[in-house]
Every structure is written in C-alpha cells, then in structure tokens.
Amino acid sequence: MIPVVLGVTLIVMLLLELTPGDPARQLLGNFATEEEIAQAREDMGLNRPLLTRYVDYLAGVTRGNLGVSYFTKGNVWDDIMERFPYTLLIVTISMLIAIVTGIPIGVYAATHQYTWKDNASIVASLFCVSMPNFWFALILVNIFAIKLGWVKPFGIETWQGWILPSVSLSIGYSATLARQTRSSMLEQIRQDYVVTARAKGQSEHIVIYKHALKNAMIPIITIVGSVFGASLGGAVIAETIFAIPGLGSYTLSALTSRDYPVVQGSVLYFAVMYSVILLLVDIVYSMVDPRIRSQFVGTKKRTRKEKKQEGEVVSQ
Question: What is the pLDDT of the chain when averaged over all its residues?
C-alpha cells in the first residue's frame, strides 16, 4: 500500500498543477487585484516549488494531517470522516441489492443456457450495464418521486430517502454480477465433480448451490470487491442528484472550486480504502476456498520445519 499511496499523491499533485485555474483567484473573485492574488498564493503556499510542496504534504500525511480547506478553513480529515459514512452506507446498500439480485439471476441463466430465459437475462444485463447511471437516476425520480409521489426526490432525513439512490447504483452492479456469475457457473457445471455429484443422486439444488456455485465464487468475489472499491469514488453522481452529503459530492465541489487540499485528501482516502478492500478480498479467498487456506498452512509448516532444520545445523 505504501507505493500505491506515494503514486496516488504524486499523480494527483501533478494533475492539479497542470489543470487550468488558480485557487487564489477562485477564492478572491474576479475583482481582486494582482497584489491581493499574489498575497493569497503566498499564504496558500502555491508559490513554493512543486517538489517542496509534495515533500511537505507527505510529511503531513505521515502525521495524519491532510491539510486545511482553502475555502471553508476546515480540517480535511475531519470533513472526510464526517461525510464518508454517507458514501459507505449508500454503496453498501447498493452492493447488497446487487448481490441478492445479480447472483441468482446469473445462476438461473447458466442453468438454462441457450433458452429464451438465458437470452433475456443476457439482453437485460447488457442494457443495464450500458445504461448511464445519471439517466436511470433521473428516470427513477421522475416516476416514483414526481409522478407517483411514493418517495421524496432528494434528502436522507428518513429511510425512504435511501431507496432511489441505492436502486440507481445497484442496477449496474447487479448486471455486472449476473454476467460474471453466469460465466463462472458455466465453467463449473461442466466439471467432472458436478457429474459425479449428480450420479450419486444428490438433488439439483444441492449440486448447483453447494458444489458448483461454491467453486465459482472466487471470480464473483473479485468482481464484488473491485466494484465495491470503485463505487466508493463513483457514487458522486447519485450523491449529486439526490443531494446526499457524501464524500463524492464533497470531492466534486472541491474540484470545481480548485480546493487542492480537499481533492488530494479525498483521492488519497479513496485509494487507501480501495487497497484495504482488495486486501479483504484476498482474505475472503482463503475463507471460501479451502485449497488456498491449505496452501498457506502448508507453506507456514514448511517454513517452520526449515527454520528448525537450520537451527539444528547451526548447533552442530
């Protein structure tokens, strides 16, 4: 994770340096004099060399200091901790909906290959994956909030406010999971162990869900982890449309206002969270697949045995 953090901080700082726009002019407005803008740039530290600013920023990151916002004067770390739970909640709800709907659809399509049910699921998943999230979110608002009046179009004061943003995000995730589940299941149901399980007289439900699906979970878990990590930074559209004070909308507003400390801190936090999620995915691998766990245990035992042998040789 250390190289990832270093690479992210460097790339973000370089991109911000190359992006047109001056935070000092953005802060003071168009009627500010050149002397006032120069003084503001000096106060922000923008007149220092890029390498010096990068080193100072890394030193602050190691101390847990992500800087102070140019415009709100608030601590970036405190703002991230205040807004991130909203983003985490909406992404978690969306992924749960996607898992509950996408995996069963993928299994059903794989067990009915080349039928109209399989073709319908493929067409529906392709449509959902290709459909823009913002367009689908606006359609949901127009139908269920404006015309039917079942839920509020924005706001998260009640649990009903989480329905539309969660559904708008989950539709694409569900289609992605359904396609990956179908592909993984088609590889497994042709294996010899599935034929053997059926020959032993086990029910089709046990064969599919206990044997085939369990062995097809590794690629599915990979997709779930990757999509979940990417969604933490990709929920900005839903947060903007439904007025959710999450980390995505916070980062977007910082980009438009050239608030460099907020942008750097938010992107760095997203990168660290993504790396942590991928680490958890690797850990889940060993919990799902006993072969991976046995390889780790076997390596650990061999390492202990080798160390013991080395100690005996040294003592001799």
Answer: 82
